[in-house]
Amino acid sequence: MSAPPEAPVEVAEPAAARKWRITSLEVLCALLVVALLLQGRLTSWLDVPRLRTASTIFVAVCVQALPFLVLGVLISGAIAAFVPGSVLNRLLPKKQAIAVPVAGVAGVALPTCECAAVPVARRLMQQGVPTSVALAFLLAAPAVNPVVLVATNVAFPNNPEMVVARLIGSLATAIVMGWLWARFGKAEWIIERALRRLPEPAGRTRWRLFFETSRADLVDAGGFLVIGALIAAALNVAVPREWVDTLGEQIVLGVVVMAVLAVLLALCSEADAFVAASIAGMPLLPKLVFLVVGPAIDVKLFALQAGTFGRAFAVRFAPATFVVAVVCAVVPGVILLGGAG
Q1: Per residue in 251-273, pLDDT tens?
Q2: Is Transmembrane tagged as a keyword (predicted)?
Q3: Does residue 26 belong to any structural domain of this protein?
């Protein structure tokens, strides 16, 4: 009987032949070494009044917003892991005209961030929930949930009417857009795979899904918070005071500028109130528009909607949402904040 063939012997690759790659750890170490070597010069360069003011504003915005951001992503992760997507479907009325505002109000009890609301809305559609109802939930959940409203109250401690105005404006935006889609929306504007029924994901425990979702949302939203805080700090020290005073005197221009800024900054709804409050000299009405428009539509949401529901949907839904959000913010703002605020 012949001996069995010997298993091939693996030859280790010589160390010299391995390609050396620069990772983030090496980059961090190099930056620390450079900072230590140039400590004196860096101190003189950075020790200027404007930069000190900007750094103070940046740290203040981040420190104030971070607890609410963490709480928000934990709740979002818990919903993704432990709340079945079919719960809302079973509780909704069959008539769309009534189901749309019910889904909007459900956003108070089922909070998610803007990014998490998009896949949740898609899953609702895949489980047979009418598209108009799912879209109402998509717009309401990031804007009217308790975490966002408490954060708004903390950011504007002397203006509790801002919380009420934001709640009314955001909820009205979600309901109006749901009704508009029910009346004028077409199913062919949404790509087929977004409506196709899919099985529930398997292979992961609920706790693992909770931690993975929370971690991903925190990293994503935390990055946008840092960017927003940097821009808020830059606006406070770089923009001439007379420009801000001009926006305060020309309220229509201030509303337009803050609405566009909300789209471009793409802040997380748990943190945007602190950024808005940090813009000194801006009246309350433009700040309210900023808070209502941001969670409804921004550049990252447009990209998510285009990738999830299709470009034909996004190019129609996003501009309509922008206009409706501005109107729905201005009306309660004029009533509750007295116009210019």
Answers
A1: 888 899 889 888 877 777 877 88
A2: yes
A3: no
What is the rounded CA–CA span in Å between residue 194 and residue 119?
A: 9
User: Rounded to a whole number, what is the distance in angstroms from the first to the last CA of the chain?
Assistant: 96
Range of the domain at 86: 48-337
For residues 300 and 114, what is the distance between their CA atoms, to the nearest angstrom? 9
Q: Is residue 162 part of a domain?
A: yes
What gap in Å lies between CA 221 and CA 225, rounded to an integer? 6
**Residues 6 or more apart whose Cβ sits within 8 Å of residue 139:** 104, 117, 170, 173, 174, 177, 178, 295, 296, 321
Burial classification of residue 294, based on how many CB atoms lie within 10 Å of its CB (0-12 exposed, 13-18 middle, 19 or more buried): buried
Tell me whether residue 143 is in a domain.
yes
> CA 297, 67, 25 angle in degrees (round to 5)?
90
For residue 18, which amino acid is it? R
Residue 65: other Cβ atoms inside 10 A:
28
Confidence of residue 4 (pLDDT cuts 50, 70, 90): low
* 145 vs 277: CA distance, rounded Å: 19
Judge whether 301 lies within some domain.
Answer: yes
**Maximum distance among all alpha carbons in the chain?**
99
Q: What is the pLDDT of residue 328?
A: 96
The answer to whether 170 and 144 are in contact (CB under 8 A) is yes
* pLDDT band at 136; cut points 50, 70, 90: very high
- Token pair belonging to 238: 């770089």
DSSP symbol at 95: S
Q: Compute CA 230 distance to the chain's CA centroid, rounded to the nearest angstrom.
A: 16
The secondary structure of residue 222, as a DSSP letter, is H
pTM exceeding 0.85: no
How far is it, in rounded angstroms, from Cα 49 to Cα 315?
Answer: 44
Let me know: does 97 contact 117? Beta carbons within 8 Å: no
What mean pLDDT is predicted for residues 137-157? 89
